[in-house]
């Protein structure tokens, strides 16, 4: 059957290869359409496609169900993710006891995971499926390492540079090994004195990495030192401004905030992912580097394609396509209706459902 792309549904199966108006191949025959595929057809301005006759049953196609519930990468990534978390815990405890970390142990813990997220680009789904409420300090460091790799790649760093930057992200909080667990794990707001002690983790981390790596990779220690510095000078430990902050520290600052806000901790509930990106966008005008932050948002937003959006009106729709500059105003499908939030300005997204 031949349909206009606005009538397509997730689970429809293409009868033939699909090409755009310039003859470029868009999707292959037998593709089981997802919301991302439908968005791709919109982006290539394909009007009509031929699909297999729809099944009379309401059950979703098993191939679609399998891909959405059990992504093909999950069995490979989860063990490496858990090993990286355990590996960081071991590094953390050894740094507590001896004041240094072993370079080979860093590589052994984190490198296997690096290979997996070099291939997987749906960062939002990856973190949601892997993240748990346990071991926040250790999971946070692994997540910052992962996100640092992606953001460095998106900013144009080479593959080797991105891999090194991911290690800087992995080790950015190693200085917390010198902070008392009674403060780190406190199930309540920190006192002013306790917070001043926590802020010293940047200094401790700089020292630990310098003693461990002997400046073989200088930005590892600089990133640990500066990832809480802010462009407007409001950060710590030195209140640096603008270009006084190392570019890699600017990368880690963005993903550090993102990971912290989406994670559930003893005393803090995780925030909606869409809300967190909006907060980062606000911070990009004073606290965070604008180019770094906007690059992160621009590449994270397309991961919401296919996810459910709850509007302020209470309506629930599916994100079909995102906008390259108006990050938070995508094209949404509610039933048979398509709503472009860049045009219909009365609509606002309240939350994203996964």
TrEMBL record:
It comes from the Bacteria. Residues 115-312 form the HD-GYP domain. Pfam families: HD_5. InterPro entries: HD/PDEase_dom, HD_GYP_dom, HDIG_dom. PROSITE patterns: HD_GYP. This is HD family phosphohydrolase. The lineage of its organism: Bacteria, Bacillati, Bacillota, Bacilli, Bacillales.
């Amino acid at each position: 059957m031949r349909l206009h792309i606005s009538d397509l549904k997730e689970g429809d199966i293409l009868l033939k290869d699909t090409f755009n108006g310039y003859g470029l191949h868009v999707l292959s025959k037998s593709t089981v359409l997802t919301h991302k595929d439908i968005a791709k057809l919109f982006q290539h301005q394909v009007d009509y496609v031929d699909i297999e006759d729809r099944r009379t049953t309401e059950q979703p196609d098993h191939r679609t169900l399998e891909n959405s519930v059990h992504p093909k990468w999950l069995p490979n990534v989860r063990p490496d993710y858990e090993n990286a978390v355990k590996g960081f815990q071991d590094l953390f405890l050894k740094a507590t006891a001896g004041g240094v970390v072993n370079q080979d142990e860093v590589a052994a813990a984190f490198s296997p995971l690096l290979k997996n997220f070099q291939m997987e680009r749906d960062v939002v789904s990856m973190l949601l499926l892997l993240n748990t409420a346990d071991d926040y300090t250790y999971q946070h460091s692994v997540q910052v390492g992962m996100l640092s790799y992606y953001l460095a790649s998106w900013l144009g760093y080479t593959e080797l540079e991105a891999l090194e930057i991911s290690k800087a992200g992995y080790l950015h909080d190693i200085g917390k090994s010198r902070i008392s667990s009674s403060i780190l794990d406190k199930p309540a707001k920190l006192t002013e004195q306790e917070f001043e002690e926590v802020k010293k983790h940047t200094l401790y981390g700089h020292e630990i990495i310098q003693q461990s790596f002997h400046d073989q990779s200088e930005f590892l220690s600089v990133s640990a030192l500066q990832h809480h510095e802010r462009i407007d000078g409001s950060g710590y430990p030195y209140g640096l401004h603008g270009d006084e902050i190392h570019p890699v520290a600017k990368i880690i600052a963005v993903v550090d905030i993102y990971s912290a806000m989406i994670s559930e901790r003893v005393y803090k509930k995780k925030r909606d992912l869409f809300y967190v990106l909006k907060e980062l966008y606000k911070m990009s005008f004073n606290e965070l580097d604008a180019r770094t932050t906007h690059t992160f948002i621009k590449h994270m937003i397309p991961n919401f394609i296919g996810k459910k959006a709850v509007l302020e009106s209470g309506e629930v729709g599916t994100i079909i396509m995102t906008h390259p500059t108006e990050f938070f105003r995508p094209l949404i499908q509610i039933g048979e209706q398509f709503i472009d939030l860049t045009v219909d300005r009365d609509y606002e997204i309240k939350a994203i459902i996964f």
